[in-house]
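Predict structure. Chain length: 445.
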Amino acid sequence: MVPPLRAQAAFAALRQVEPILVLEQLGSTLFDTALQMVVRDRCANATYTDTHSSRGDSEQKAMSDFYMVYNLIIQLTPILPAVLLAKFGDRGWRRAPIVVPLSGYLLSRLALLLVVVLSLPLEVMYGAAVLFGLSGGFCAYWPGVMTLASLRSTATDRSKVMMRVELLYGIAGLVGSLVSGHLFLLYNSNLEHGTILLIVSTLLHLLSLLHSIFLLQVKQVANQDPGEDCHIISNASGNVPVEASAGINMVNVTLLFAAAILYGSAVGGAMEILGVYVLKEPLSWTATQVGYGNAAGCMIFLTSFLGVIVFRRCVSDVTLILIGMLSFASGIYFMSFVTATYMFYLARSLNLFGLIPMPTIRSLLSQQVPAASCGITLTSLQLSMKFAGLAYFPAFTKIYQRTLDWFPGFVFTLSSILTVLGMIPISIIGYRSPQRRQYVRIQGD
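Prediction complete.
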């Protein structure tokens, strides 16, 4: 009887959301490396009317312009579709926020494959970005994944389930990034560089879509605590102080919004330029090195969650956020002066806890409002950061292009300054929380 039981357990695990998550993230990391290298190859012969621009500077300007437009499309087009898909999900169509975005993932990956195989213009990827956004993109997909993970867990083990999902996401990204550069270099006389990599990426997304349609099971575990409040996953607290208030703490909400927008702008702007920066002299990375660099970014995902586990028992949420922001500010400032690959990894090693702040800010934000306003508050934060992208993507791009001649790393220094500014509202929140106030303690697992 043991083999049948094991087979049933394996099949039950296969019907969960985790296999979809792994397949999608593996495919996405392969796609990211492929897109980065294809953009570099297509922009190699770019020319700008500015006579003072060298050939290398013209290539960098063309690449940064492409990513600016591409990222703006991806940031803005998913907003309305994501809201609609979330409503469908809340009405019982739980697979919709996963199946529809995965179809967009598949189409965008297929578009890049066609660009490479058929030598189509790079601008085709703008259309692919629109299709990706109209499907809801990551903005709809990730909440859909987290919702399904929540439905199958009880209130007591929910944070543990969430952390396992996010760790799987990080590990899959790490593995995919490590192999992506090697796959990009595989080719023969009939195939361009990146063709095999993109075929594998497209197949992985096809498998994840088919899995979500035919195998994914939506199972809800009855909550043993019907009076549970809206404690949206607190990744950063074992004993989190939650103010026992039925109203909205508007001062803290405003400060948290300000910190999130400043930090999100600093991270988003710096990461947009970093992918272009490593392809220019003196680094001039190959596809393999690009994959390893992306893997370093995924490693930060893992170290941030390990940092949460270590620090959550001895420091407050406010201190956790400050640790994460300081980690990113120091690493990205050092990145301003990187001139060799080993220096890049030293800078990234300083970013070990750079992914801690945003989940913790969301957790704190959910504690400042009543349960009935929790969803709309977190959605408003997400939309605010989307609209902030309208400013920081063009700003970082144009500043990078104008400082290429005298200080290419200036945008990273600017990102560090924005991060330090983001630490100020968080520090004010910590200062406004005197010891004499009464809190409800949520015991960790």
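Summary: The chain has 16 helices and two strands.
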